[in-house]
From TrEMBL:
SUPFAM superfamilies: Bacterial luciferase-like
Lineage: Bacteria, Bacillati, Actinomycetota, Actinomycetes, Propionibacteriales
GO-annotated molecular function: alkanesulfonate monooxygenase activity
Signal sequence range: none
GO biological process, one term: alkanesulfonate catabolic process
Pfam families per the UniProt record, alphabetical: Bac_luciferase
Protein's UniProt name: LLM class flavin-dependent oxidoreductase
InterPro entries given in the database record: Luciferase-like_dom (IPR011251), Luciferase-like_sf (IPR036661), SsuD_RutA_monooxygenase (IPR050172)
């Protein structure tokens, strides 16, 4: 049983379908008004049926007031660490500190290669992502006028980092393999698994790997945000039971729902599921 005691957050996984752009922006406003904490957008630049993730996130942030936005997850091979850093920090300033940064190695490499990025081995993908985490932290947190970095995938020579973000942008990794989990625990700020690929009964092992890596790096595992992308045709009661158990026994603390851009769906999360899960978790923690 693992409960890290973190505050619970709830959000919406917004579909960037080009056919429903207006509906998506309208639903983002409803999610904001309803008090949801997060809106994530998947990033597949090779998919012609998808809106550009960063443009959509910017539009969402510009039409909302409090909800935090993030790519779920950014395609690092295509976007590159430095330009991701500039985009995220710029939007963080525009939105008064409401941006987090989900990062991934890229999944559909046929599509990535079609846009001109050479194929990489699995090891190379992970190597490049680890360097991207280093570069982004240097870019965001150094506080220096110029920075340098000498890696195999990223090389900076007296680069001027900026603009500075308003808050410390969280680096959340879409990590599954052992080495990615080790990098996450030692260097990153959050984990972004999806229920479809890592069901609740499979969360224990990766959480343990993250914790071991965090402790080895002198970090408190409870500092790491654990954000779960969830889909499913469940009743409100079933969702409450599932997410309460997932929080108290499997350590997750934020839930991003993949539901259609409908007020009824978003209000069910904000008005029914979220308060019931918070109440049940608080009651169990109090015991």
């Amino acid at each position: 049983m693992t409960d890290y005691g973190r505050d619970l957050e709830f959000g919406w996984f917004a579909d960037p379908d080009v056919r429903s752009a207006r509906e998506t922006l309208g639903a983002a406003g409803i999610a904001d008004q309803a008090g949801l904490d997060l809106i994530g957008v998947q990033d597949h630049p090779y998919n012609s049926g998808h809106l550009d993730a960063w443009t959509l996130l910017t539009a969402i942030a510009s039409t909302t007031e409090r909800v935090r936005v993030f790519p779920d997850v950014a395609n690092v091979p295509l976007r590159g660490a430095v330009m991701l850093g500039r985009a995220a920090a710029t939007l963080d300033r525009i939105s008064d500190g409401r941006v987090e940064l989900g990062l991934g190695t890229g999944v559909f490499w046929e599509g990535i290669a079609a846009l001109g990025t050479p194929e990489r081995s699995r090891k190379e993908r992970v190597d490049a992502l680890e360097e991207a985490v280093d570069v982004l932290r240097l870019w965001f947190d150094s506080g220096r006028r110029s920075v340098s970095y000498d890696g195999d995938w990223y090389r900076l020579r007296g680069a001027h980092p900026g603009p500075p973000p308003i808050h410390r942008i969280g680096l959340w990794l879409g990590a599954l393999g052992p080495r990615m989990l080790q990098i996450l625990g030692s260097k990153a700020d959050g984990w972004l698994p999806s229920l479809a690929f890592v069901p609740p009964d499979k969360l224990a092992e990766p959480n343990a790997r993250i914790d071991d890596a965090a402790l080895a790096a002198g970090r408190d595992p409870a500092e790491i945000n654990r954000v779960y992308n969830v889909w499913g045709d469940f009743s409100t009661r079933q969702w409450v039971d599932l997410l309460t158990t997932t929080t108290l026994e499997h350590g997750m603390n934020a839930y991003v729902f993949g539901v259609p851009p409908l007020e009824s769906e978003l209000r069910r999360i904000s008005d029914e599921i979220a308060p019931a899960v918070r109440e049940a978790v608080a009651a169990e923690r109090a015991r």
